[in-house]
Specification:
- The chain has 3 domains: 158 residues, D-Maltodextrin-Binding Protein, domain 2 (3-Layer(aba) Sandwich); 126 residues, Sandwich (Immunoglobulin-like), CATH 2.60.40; 103 residues, D-Maltodextrin-Binding Protein, domain 2.
- It is built from 11 helices and 22 strands.
- The strands form 5 sheets. Strands 1, 2, 3, 4, 14, 15, 16, 17 and 22 form a 9-stranded mixed sheet that branches. A 4-stranded antiparallel sheet has the order 6-7-8-11, with no helix packed on it. The chain has a 4-stranded antiparallel sheet with strand order 10-9-12-13, with no helix packed on it.
- Helix 1 crosses helix 10 and helix 10 packs antiparallel against helix 11.
Length: 473
């Protein structure tokens, strides 16, 4: 069952940036319903944009509709090549060699559409201090997903979470941040809570901050319905006290101004991975191979079992799941579970009060980075663009400040004029072009961040628009 997202379904009025773009004969053709599908990575934003597209009169004056099914990148590409899908999305870049078994054809154009952070999602009950967001280095992530680390109190995970103060908390795609400092008065703490516009709705419950002292005693210091903007909070402080921040039943995490030992339970690790051919898997496995080749020895692949360094364990410690949704559902339902999802799938469950977190990942600059739209954008900007192909090759060694290193771009596959009538009609090609133009120019810039994605900008966006212009040509 898909979640109805409070956080990710914040009402947004989509602007009509730029002129409507379509084929010159749009008024002479009948409206169509575009059969589309593929990657589950962009599913949450595709759902929002196709709904808005149906109502748009600037890009879609004829009244076309888009039906999109999330079946995974591999199946999406196969269905597109055969003509079953008239438009598809894939987070893995197609190749004539790699897609030969899927009926690869050359009569299409590849359009970068949307970027997003792949969060390493986990659920771990019993971590102390309560609400601690764990840090995982690239090698630790690789060893966990390779089955070499099997318990949460492993020495490598402990080493990634040293005894330090953690005075800054970023949660819900950085829509909520908390910064703590020593108070102006002795024995006090000052906190600043910043909430971005759009996070607070009429249905939002309270913002709660609880102090947990070294003995485990909990004391509420704030409990009110939050408002957009900056909130200043001061409270008495005892050395070693942690402050748990809860927004609308979602335990966002903790802040501390004193060094505090993270205590990890010895819970067995259960790894959730994609059972379908997946672009999310392709990007995640590529990250593992590029950052920890001694552990993740195989090159990337759409299939997790094929990318896995050896043979996936069959003792129950690894569980296959369908789509980003399936992995997120598995992780949140299993104490000790860990997986990989586009950030929006983590956010929507956190917003529903589910016990699931996204680990901070260490980037090549040595920063521990929370997955976010801004972090994904910084990482994409550091990549190398192939303007002719419309693709971006990521630089996992980038030391760009704030870059979140596990990021993907989801690409649209749309037909050119060379497509046969069985693969797509002229009207269907025209509808796909209108939808891509609407998505790039209007919908993504308006809703991407609140949905947990990163709209394309700068040189990558320019390439995307140039590729979109080739649809139907």
């Amino acid at each position: 069952m898909r979640f109805k997202k409070r956080f990710a379904a914040i009402a947004v009025v989509v602007g009509t940036v730029g002129a409507g773009v379509g084929f010159a004969d749009a008024s002479a053709r009948s409206k169509v319903t575009l059969t589309a599908g593929g990657a589950t990575f962009p599913l949450n934003i595709i759902e929002a944009c196709r709904a808005d597209f149906a109502q748009d009169t600037t890009y879609n004056s004829i009244g076309d509709a888009v039906n999109y099914t999330g079946v995974g990148s591999g199946t999406g590409r196969q269905n597109f090549y055969s003509g079953t899908y008239k438009f598809a999305m894939s987070d893995a870049i197609p190749s004539a060699t790699g897609d030969a078994s899927r009926g690869y054809r050359a009569s299409f154009v590849l359009v970068p559409m949307i970027a997003g952070a792949i969060g390493v999602s986990y659920r771990l009950d019993g971590v102390k201090p309560e609400g601690t967001i764990l840090q995982l280095s690239p090698t630790t992530v690789a060893r966990i997903f390779a089955g070499q680390i099997t318990k949460w109190d492993d020495a490598a995970i402990k080493a990634d979470n040293p005894v330090v103060a953690k005075p800054k908390l970023e949660g819900l795609n950085k829509f909520l941040t908390v910064t703590a400092v020593n108070g102006k008065k002795a024995g006090t703490i000052d906190m600043t809570v910043n909430i971005k516009g759009g996070l607070v709705t009429s249905k939002t419950k309270n913002l709660i901050i609880r102090a947990i002292d070294p003995t485990g005693k909990q004391t509420p210091i704030y409990n009110k319905k939050p408002k957009t903007g900056a909130l200043k909070i001061s409270a008495k402080h005892t050395t070693g006290t942690e402050y748990v921040v809860i927004f609308d039943k979602n335990e966002v995490g903790t802040v501390s101004i004193d060094p505090t030992t993270v205590k990890l339970p010895s819970t067995p690790i259960t790894v959730y991975y994609r059972k379908d051919t997946s672009g999310t898997t392709n990007n995640f496995a590529n990250y593992l191979n590029k950052t920890s080749p001694a552990v993740w020895t195989k090159a990337t692949n759409d299939a997790f079992t094929s990318a896995f360094p050896t043979t996936v364990p069959t003792d129950g410690s690894f569980v296959a799941a369908q789509g980003n949704d399936g992995i997120a559902n598995g992780v949140m339902g299993k104490d000790g579970g860990i997986g990989y999802n586009e950030l929006s799938f983590i956010n929507e469950r956190q917003a529903a009060g589910k016990n699931i977190y996204a680990a901070k990942i260490k980037n090549a600059a040595g920063e521990w980075i929370t997955p976010s739209s801004s972090g994904a954008s910084a990482f994409v900007a550091a990549g190398t663009i192939d303007a002719a192909a419309g693709t971006v090759t990521f630089n996992y060694d980038t030391t760009t400040a704030g870059a979140y290193p596990i990021t993907a771009i989801s690409y649209g596959l749309a037909n050119t004029a060379a497509a046969t009538s069985a693969q797509a009609s002229t009207s269907e090609i025209a509808a796909s072009k209108s939808f891509v133009d609407f998505f790039l120019n209007s919908c993504a810039p308006a809703v991407a961040e609140v949905k947990g994605y990163a709209a394309l900008t700068g040189a990558v966006l320019n390439v995307a628009k140039a590729q979109a212009a080739k649809i139907g040509s």
